[in-house]
Amino acid sequence: MTQAYTQRFSVEGKRALVTGGSKGIGAVTAEVLAKAGADVAIVGRDQEGLAKTEMAIQAAGRKCLVIEADLATVDGPRQAGEAALEHYGVVDILVNNAGVAPLDNLLEMSVEDWDLTQAVNLRAPFLVAQTVAPKMIEQESGKIINVSSQASVAALDDHAAYCASKGGLNMLTQVMALEWGPHNIQTNAVAPTVILTPMAEKNWGDPTKSEPMLAKIPLGRFGQPVEVADLILFLASPASDLICGETILIDGGYTAL
Description:
- This protein has helices at residues 5-8, 24-35, 47-59, 75-88, 111-139, 160-180, 198-204, 207-215, 225-236; strands at 15-19, 39-44, 64-68, 93-96, 142-147, 185-192, 247-250.
- It has 257 residues and is an alpha/beta fold.
- Strands 3-2-1-4-5-6-7 form a 7-stranded parallel β-sheet, with helices on both faces.
- Strand 4 (93-96), helix 5 (111-139) and strand 5 (142-147) form a beta-alpha-beta unit.
- Helix 2 (24-35) runs parallel beside helix 3 (47-59), helix 2 packs across helix 9 (225-236) and helix 4 runs parallel beside helix 5 (111-139).
- The radius of gyration is 17 Å and the shape is globular.
- The chain starts with a helix and ends in a 7-residue tail after the last strand.
C-alpha cells in the first residue's frame, strides 16, 4: 500500500547537516527541514545569523546543533562533519549549501579570489561529504544535496571562478552518485537562478545588471530562498528515492531559451 503523501515528503526523525546555515538559502533550508521533522546541525561563521536560524529550528520543535567553522580551510569542513557525527552518530541528510561569489573579469581576477571560490564552493562539499559518507554507507541510506547554480551550465560575465566551481560541483555530484549510489545514498544537485539572498542583492542589486538577466528568464523574476528549500526538502525525502546523480535546474526557464 502506498504511504500517505505526508509520509513520503517527511524527514521526521532524520538528522541533517546544512552548511552556510546562517543566512539565505541555507537558513531557510534548515528551517524547512526542521518543520518537516528533522533535527538540524547548521554550519557557518556568522554567530548572529546562526543564532537566528537556531531559534527558527527550535521554534519548529526540533533540536539544533550550531557549528562554527571556516569552510575555506582544509580542516574546517572536516571539523564540521566530525562535530555533526559526534553529536548525532550519523548524518542522514547533508546539504552542501555554503558558497562565495567574488566577481571580476578574467583579466582582472586575482588568484586569491579564484582559490577562495574553489575552496568554499567545491573543495568544502567534497571534504564534508567525505567525512559523513562512511556512516551513511554503514547504515545503507543517506541523502546528499549539493547547491549548485544556473551558472554551472550557462556562462556569465565576471563569473569565471564561480561558474568553474559550480560546474565542478555538478560533476562531483555525479561521481558521488556513481560511487555511493550502490549503498542507497542518493546524491543530487540543485541549480538555482538568481535567488534573492543577501549575496544576490550585492551582486545583482544594480538594475543595469539585473534587468538584462530578468529579460532572459521566461517567468520574469528572480527566485525566493524558500523555493529552493522546498526542492531540497523533496530531494531529502523518501519521495525522491529514485532520483540520483541529477542536477536539477530551478531557473524560471532561463536555460530553456
